[in-house]
Amino acid sequence: MAASLASHLHIGLRRPCPKLDAFNSQSFYSFDPNLRLSLSPPKPPRAVVAMAGTGKFFVGGNWKCNGTKDSIAKLVSDLNSAKLEPDVDVVVAPPFLYIDQVKNSLTERIEISAQNSWVGKGGAFTGEISVEQLKDLGSKWVILGHSERRHIIGENDEFIGKKAAYALSQGLGVIACIGELLEEREAGKTFDVCFQQLKAFADAVPSWDNIVIAYEPVWAIGTGKVATPQQAQEVHAAVRDWLKKNISAEVASKTRIIYGGSVNGGNSAELAKQEDIDGFLVGGASLKGPEFATIVNSVTSKKVAA
Ligand code: PGA
Known about the structure:
Layout: H1 2-9, H2 19-24, H3 35-39, E1 57-62, H4 69-81, E2 88-93, H5 99-105, E3 111-114, H6 131-136, E4 141-144, H7 147-153, H8 157-169, E5 173-178, H9 182-186, H10 190-204, E6 211-215, H11 229-246, H12 249-254, E7 257-260, H13 268-272, E8 279-282, H14 289-296, H15 299-303
Parallel strand pairs: 1-2, 1-8, 2-3, 3-4, 4-5, 5-6, 6-7, 7-8
Helix pairs in contact: 4-14, 8-10, 10-11
2-phosphoglycolic acid binds near residues 62, 263, 281 and 282.
C-alpha cells in the first residue's frame, strides 16, 4: 500500500525504482511520502483556498549582476508606479553597489534583499560585504545558497549554513535556495539533493521564523525551461513534509516555499495555483518592472484556484 502510494506520488520525478526505501534509510533526515495523502487532517476553510502553507505570498526579484545607475533608475520608477496586490510580500535584490540608490528611490512597499553576505562579522575580508553593512543600507533580506554561488563560485552546504545562521542572528531574513542539477534529477536524486541542502540549513539555524525557502531547479534557472506546475508542486510538497517530519508541523505550515527558475509573466499564474507554491524568486523577468508586477499579482490566481 505504502509502495503504491509512494510510486503514485513520484510520477514524473523519480525513476521507477525503489529509491524511496533508499532515501528513507539514509543518514540525513527522512521524508514520509504518505504524510500528505493519509495523515494530514482536513484543512479548515481559508480565504486563500489554494494554499497548503499559512504564510503570505512572497515574490522576490533577483537582479543578479545586472544594471547600471540609469537602467536601475528606470526599473525603480517602473516598480514605483506598478499596481501591486496588497497581500504579497515583495522584495528586490539589487547588486550590492546599487542597494543604496534603490533604497533611496524605491517605494517602501518593496523591501530590499542582498544577493549574498559574508559568513561572520565584517573585518579583514577583502572584497566581501558584511551583514552589518547590508543592514546599515536598509536591507531586510539576503539570498543564500543560490545555485550560481554553489556551482559557479563553489560555496558548500556547511558554509552556506553558517552564513544563514549569522545573517539570522543579526536580524536579516534569509531566502534559502535549494535545487538539483539536471543530472541529479535524471538520476532520480532530486529529493535527496534538496533534503541534503535543507538539512544543512536546519543544522545551522536556531529558528525558521525568518527563512523563506526557494526551490530552484538548476536546470530551470536562466534557461527558459520552467518546471511544470506539477514538477514544482511535487518538490514543494515534499519539502513541506520534510519540514513537518524533521522540524515541526508549525514550521512546515508557516514557512513560505517559493519557486524559482524561468518564472515569467506568462507562466506565473499557473504555477501560483499549486497549493504548495507560496510565491516566486524571479531572475531575468524581474528586470522588467511591469512583468515583475504581473508575477507579483499572480497571487490572484491562487485565490480562485480551488
Ligand atoms: P531566472 O532566475 O528567473 O532568470 O531563471 C531565477 C533565479 O536565479 O533566482
